[in-house]
Amino acid sequence: MTSSLLAHVEMAPKDPILGVTETYNADTNPKKVNLGVGVYYDDNGKVPLLQAIRTAELQMAETALPRNYLPIDGMPAYNKAVKEVIFGADSEAVKSNRIVTVQTLGGTGGLKIGADLAKRLYPESQAWISDPSWENHRALLEFAGFKVNAYPYYDAATHGLKFNDMLSCMDQMAPGSLVLLHACCHNPTGVDLSAAQWQEVIEMVKKKNLLPFLDMAYQGFSEGLNEDAHAVRAFTKACPAVLVSSSFSKSMSLYGERVGAFSVVTASAEEAARLLSQVKRVIRTNYSNPSTHGGMAVTKVLTTPELRTQWEQELTQMRERIKTMRRSLVEKIRSHRADFDFNYVANQRGMFSYSGLTKEHVTKLREEFSIYALDSGRICVAALNSTNIDYVSEAIAKVIVR
Ligand code: LMR
Fold it and tell me: 90 catalytic, yes or no?
């Protein structure tokens, strides 16, 4: 055979998060634990099928709707209900129709639509992400054509924020820069800004005329649905242009259904109509239109009062279980290693903890205990349960000794 046009193609590296799951799946050790990917598991180590979703799906099966194409921007009822979850039903911006919300393929789909849109609107702009950020942010923005820079965020010495450095960096950004911010449950560190710090960031965004893009993949996993939307809502009140991506992968345990949204806050209903027309072009050229099943289930849960209440209760249970696991991990590690202060893990928010484990520790955990974490030291606390927590805390205590 003559040399192929594809002969030069190199093997790409494994994905830093989903690649860990691939290696974990191949591990035959019955004690293996996957603290890599951001997925919530219940105390039995299973991805839950929420009761609210199950009931919605049973109702959907009874009505068995045909599956025509959805509109490019998704189901109108979904978009309306989701907009209210994100921005609040009583928001002035919602009431005056100056927010566009479209159904996307998960939160990553929302980020991709937002990144492509921003690139079309501001081809010369550069993008900024936090240091560190979700492993996929940089690649996603680069694939959309941006030069990607990082602003200071996490302070490893204090397990807190480099807030002043973050603000000074923003003060140097060129007007029109795209600034990606984690609305809550910062991924990977679990360290969030306070309300007062958000206000300072908002002032800086306004002063420098930056384009904020808020990634809210974990709404409901820190303090509650409304509390976790604080940053998004504060930006919406203060800035005439805000991009938001959001997801139900975690909050409704619908990972495989790919149900998310992309929203644009604009200055007026007339501007929103123009933005929607551009967003639709971006969606049409990416994947044409979103899929039906997950979006229908979410809409049913959000718009049926009993299902909505049930979902919020189930979300609260998930959030509280994670917090219990955080405290338990800290106590158990302390019982092995009184000299090692792991207390910061209990104060971090959301599914993740930037554990402080080094790449070397992570390698030892994987090779000697079949415990999988990200090379950065990020662990998914939502994968701990009453069966594996002793094993994990003992293993961590052992690897940090050496
Ligand atoms: C994560 O950070 O692990 C999750 O957001 C899952 C993913 O797609 O990376």
Answer: no
Number of alpha carbons in the 13 Å side-chain half-sphere of residue 256: 3
Average pLDDT over residues 150-169: 97
CA 14 to chain centre: 20
Identify which of 14, 22, 37, 47 to mutate to test ligand 1's pocket (most ligand atoms within 8 A of the CB).
Answer: 37
Contact 25, 37 (CB under 8 A): no
Q: Which atom of ligand 1 is nearest to the CA of 134?
A: 2
List phi, psi (to 5°) of 52: -60, -40
256 Cα to the center of ligand 1, angstroms? 12
pLDDT in tens, 334-346: 999 888 888 899 9
- Supply 378's token pair: 């990020």
Report the distance separating Cα 67 and Cα 290, nearest Å: 12
Residue 9 pLDDT grade (very low, low, confident, very high; cuts 50, 70, 90) = very high
Q: 394 C-alpha to center of ligand 1: Å?
A: 26
E strands present in 251-377? 259-265, 352-354, 371-372
**37 CA distance to ligand 1 centroid (A)?**
6
Ligand 1 centroid, distance to 60 Cα (angstroms): 29
Q: For the residues 371-398, what does the mean pLDDT come to?
A: 96
Catalytic site residue 198? no
From 112, 119, 128, 134, the catalytic residue: 134
pLDDT for residue 64: 83
Mean pLDDT computed over 223-242 = 98
How far is it, in rounded angstroms, from Cα 25 to Cα 52? 29
375 catalytic, yes or no? no
Mean pLDDT of the chain: 96
The helix/strand/coil state of 249 is coil
How many residues are present in the chain? Answer: 402
Q: Ligand 1 site: residues with CB under 6 angstroms?
A: 17, 37-38, 134, 136, 187, 217
- Catalytic entry in 250, 300, 332, 364: 250
0.90 exceeded by pTM? yes
Residue nearest to ligand 1 atom 2, measured at CA: 38
Q: What is the position in ligand 1's atom list of the atom closest to the CA of 18?
A: 9
- Which pLDDT tens digit goes with each residue over 52-80? 999 999 999 999 888 999 999 999 999 99
Average the pLDDT over 257-277 and give the result: 98
